[in-house]
Structure formats: C-alpha cells, structure tokens
Amino acid sequence: MKHTVVFEPKSAMVDGSRSGLHIHDLDGHLGGGPTLGVSGVIHGDEVTGAHILLDLFRVLKTTPFRGRLRLMPVANPHGFAAVERFTTIDRVNLNRVFPGNPKGTYSEQLADHIMQKFYNTLDVLVDLHSGTDRPTVDYSYIFNDEALSRATGSKILYRPENQGRGFKGTSAVAVLERDVPVTVIELGGGVIDQAPYARRGVEALLNIMRHLGMLDGEVHHRTDHVVVKDIKLVRPTQGGFIETEAPALGELVGDGAVLGRIISPYTFEELEVLGNPVTNGIMILSHLTRNIIEPGDYAYMVGDLDGSES
Known about the structure:
Mean pLDDT: 97
Number of helices: 6
CATH architecture of the largest domain: 3-Layer(aba) Sandwich
Radius of gyration: 20 Å
Shape: globular
CATH superfamily of the largest domain: Zn peptidases
Distance between the termini: 38 Å
CATH class of the largest domain: Alpha Beta
C-alpha cells in the first residue's frame, strides 16, 4: 500500500493557525479499482468515525487491495477539538449547509472546501456518524445503492422517502446529486468503550471493499436485516438524569413500553416518563448509561416496524 497524507489548507484564523482538512490517500498494490471515500466527524461530538478510520488504516497497512481509498477522519476540526456538534466558529450545523458556498459563512466555506477537495473526487462515499458523547446508535441508511448499504452489516437499515433527497444540506444529498453511490453508517457513541463499535466499523468498511471488488474474499451478507421506512425521535421536555429501561439496540419494543425516565439530580424525584411512540418498534438509539440530558435532547430513536421489510 502506498500512503500519502495531505493537509488541504482552508483559512487563516485569528489566532494565527490555519484551518483545513487532513486527507489520506491509500493506493492498493493489486491494480486499478474504484476510489472509495470515507468521511468522519462532520458533527464534532460524533467521534467514533475517527476511531474507525484509524483502526482501518492500521489493518490496511498489511492488507493487499485494489483501487484507492481516501480517508477524511475529521471533517469538522474545530467542533472535534471542542467535542461540540456544530462548527464552533459560527455555531452552524456543518451537515446542513452542503454543498456549501465559497463566499458564505465559515461553515458554508468549509462545506464547499470538503466538496472540492474530497467528495467531488470519489466514485463511492461512506459517511460515518455516531451517537454523541451521551447516546449510542446503530443503523445505516439506504439511499441510491441498496447493495452498498446492506454490505455495511447493520441489522437495521433506514429507507427514507425519495432516496433521502429531502435531507437538504447534508453531505449525503450533495453527493447523491452527483449520482455517486453513498451510504451513511450511524454507529457507536455514548459514555462507553468505543472499541467494539470501532471493530464493527472496520469490518463494515472491509466488507464494503469486498463488495466493490477492492478486496479479495466473500462478501458477508446478513440474513436478519430489518428495513424501516420511518424512525420516531423521542425528546424529553424535562432535564436531569436519564435512566433507560428500553431493550438493547436492535431489539423489539412493544406498545406502551417505558423507554426511560428523567430524574432530578437535585430532588431525586421522577420528572418525566418517556414511552414508546409506536405500536411495534425496534430500538435504534438509546442511552446505555445514566446520562445528563437537557429538554429537547435526543433521548431515544425507535424504528416503526409497520410497513418494514427484510
């Protein structure tokens, strides 16, 4: 494998530093093939993707493959440094302003820089997301290439309407509009060890490389996929500690089930009970430990099994 890493500078900052992107090019020794790009940490508090790409790089140093792998482990460096979702310069959600604007706000300029230096160079994109530093998540999206999404190995797949083109401003839609195959893997996060999720992420990317013919070996196919068309997000109206009673991620949750409770860390009283919003559901996002939570934060995500597929 031939490895080069390039810093693509973006802007001079007030403190004298330069903002920009670190992009890795890994060229296989087995001949030609597609250019697969994998990006992480568009949201600065979703750091599992950077773990996955570091571990993938270490595996591929001794693994022959075809084609080119482009890695952008940290798309939002300022948010990553502060462990904050938004770009800290202008407090904007970077994953809502693609394809960006070279003369716009800082986040719009950064999105344009990512498009020009990374996304526009790819034949296939995998964008890595996770839960934040509190909740944990586990599913993948189906956009314009179902076989690619199934190769992620995620049990739960989400098929949004119109190939997800309604998610305007996201990196995935910006790449979709170039007719490039794309999937998004949502995996990991939370106040728990990320190593098991990093291992799963590495295996997902290796399996995608097999699917694309970049790696030798048989593509692993799950037989228990659940494809949902609707995901319900549960947000609390009260803040405090969240204590989860929901089943594990990927498990079924029934009508009327209690997902969790909000407890005051000051008075110890129960402030709110969070219930399952669907009749037949499957757990997608949850708090696996007692965490602090604000009103309106992500508490749980439940896939609606009505109308689901396999």
